[in-house]
Specification:
Radius of gyration: 26 Å
Distance between the termini: 49 Å
Helix content: 55-70%
Structural class: alpha+beta
Strand content: 5-15%
Number of domains: 2
Number of strands: 4
Shape: elongated
Strand order of the largest sheet: 1-2-4-3
Number of helices: 10
């Protein structure tokens, strides 16, 4: 039978043991989690955590972002305290833990439902944030590409074909030798689909930085001549790529393509009209 604390209308036991650090980030203690799930022997629960770690790794997530080992102090009687090994769990880690816990425990089934729903809500929230970032950066990139085209024109890049070549040099620098056509094929885009429309916010931001810095370089150094303009754009792209590498980021060509941003823009327009 379910206990009173699992009755409808009462707070979830998993919510009751949720903690928040000074930075406002939520987490769960593996010690609290083991108790809620009915693991009397904590060592048995450690095996569940290891399975969850493996699942986290296999899902492509950084294990250290979701499972953090610490020495926690617990009371042992007469005011004494001693350190014990504890794992701090993210919400996603908790989801993986209950997926790998003893399914015969009723509380485990409750936990699976709770964290599945909460994780899905978080995913939706994260996606909304990503969508807004894409819309904002894409709009900025459109504006800065116009400024870049103006600067390139001042350098002597006038004809549409020459400007396409100029843009390709920026891509070649940023994408490690891949030009626009290569990228289109590499990302698996269909005929007529625009590369920039299928970039996530991280990739868009890298290209925004490339565009703004290329414009600045052309104007600052008063570059004249198509060949010099192309070389400058390629150099800027390569510098941005090097910065990403030094920071340990994912190379832009390895970032997955996103759904067309035109769908987001259409939805935003419909919502705007509905106000």
């Amino acid at each position: 039978m379910m206990t009173d604390e699992l009755s409808p209308g009462t707070p979830s036991p998993f919510e009751q043991i949720r903690r928040v650090n000074d930075a406002g980030n939520e987490y769960w203690s593996s010690r609290d989690f083991a108790r809620i799930l009915g693991y009397v022997n904590y060592r048995h629960f450690l095996a569940v955590i290891e399975k969850a770690r493996t699942a986290c790794f296999n899902s492509g997530q950084r294990v250290e972002d979701h499972f953090v080992g610490i020495d926690d102090m617990i009371a042992v009687g007469k005011g004494a305290r001693r350190p014990v090994k504890t794992v701090l769990l993210s919400r996603y880690a908790c989801y993986l833990v209950v997926q790998n816990a003893d399914p015969s425990k009723e509380i485990v089934a409750v936990g699976q439902t709770y964290f599945a729903i909460q994780t899905r809500r978080q995913e939706l929230s994260d996606q909304e944030i990503e969508d807004q970032r894409r819309l904002t950066i894409r709009a900025e990139l459109r504006a800065h590409n116009s400024h870049l085209a103006d600067a390139a024109k001042g350098a002597g890049v006038i004809e549409p074909r020459d400007y396409a070549i100029f843009q390709n040099h920026g891509y070649i620098g940023l994408y490690g030798g891949l030009n626009a056509q290569d990228l289109h094929r590499h990302k698996g885009l269909k005929k007529g689909e625009q590369i920039l429309d299928h970039m996530g916010s991280t990739e868009l931001a890298a290209n925004l930085f490339r565009a703004t810095q290329a414009e600045e370089k052309l104007r600052r150094e008063k570059i004249i001549g198509k060949a010099k303009a192309n070389a400058a754009h390629r150099e800027v792209g390569a510098k941005v790529r090097q910065t990403i590498k030094e920071l340990g980021g994912t190379m832009p060509e390895a970032l997955p393509p996103a759904d067309s941003i035109r769908k987001l823009e259409s939805r935003q327009k419909r919502l705007g009209k509905g106000k």
